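The following record pairs a protein chain with its ligand, 2-acetamido-2-deoxy-beta-D-glucopyranose.
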Amino acid sequence: MAAQQVIVLLALASLAVASKPDCKELVKPLVLDSHSPIYGKWVLHVASWDDPGLKDDILSVNSSWLDVSASSESGVITIYWADRLNENKCLQGIANATISGMTSHTTYNINGHTSYHDGKYYETCSNCLLSEDTTLLPDGKSKGRYFFLFTRTGALEGSELETFKNQAECLKFPSEYHFTSKDLCPDGRATTSTGVKNTEKEQPEIEPNVQ
Ligand SMILES: *[C@@H]1O[C@H](CO)[C@@H](O)[C@H](O)[C@H]1NC(C)=O
Ligand SMILES: *[C@@H]1O[C@H](CO)[C@@H](O)[C@H](O)[C@H]1NC(C)=O
């Protein structure tokens, strides 16, 4: 009888293993260098988050896009971002990120407010950008993580979405997702500077994708 129980347990255990995503295979951090496939324009398709406190901020983002480029300084990349908020306002800015190994450290200055983000990038579909963004409080403590999947056009195959969900599960994100629209804000770089909103209406302080 005891032996039977063991066999049943073993069978259940192997079932559980079989149905679990292979996280080692699915979640491979990118070492960031000038050849990393992170450069160029990216349109956000879906976001996940792991802290309830981050939910309202991400839900207020209707669309988001980035332009990641190398800077003149080695180990520094430049991120231009433009978010459309649900009140139909565009918010945009430019930030420098310093790269060390597998992590990027970015300081965003938005309307005079500073926020800190540690980013990690992972292997993903071709023409996709997968990033895990930890928002840091001024004392260095984590406020929580976002998980973002960008693509070149904003479009994504169903199977690629399934992979994203499995990757999010591997990284212990709850299965809640925010799908963003492709109604992108215009590129404001020609006319405005860092952190300047290009609408006249007052709005709450919102960070790129987050608060
Ligand atoms: C974005 O805004 C459009 C137009 O107001 C709306 O139809 C759509 O549901 C919004 N999408 C998201 C993800 O907020
Ligand atoms: C980013 O770095 C470049 C080069 O060091 C500098 O000229 C620029 O002002 C920086 N931009 C921001 C937004 O900090």
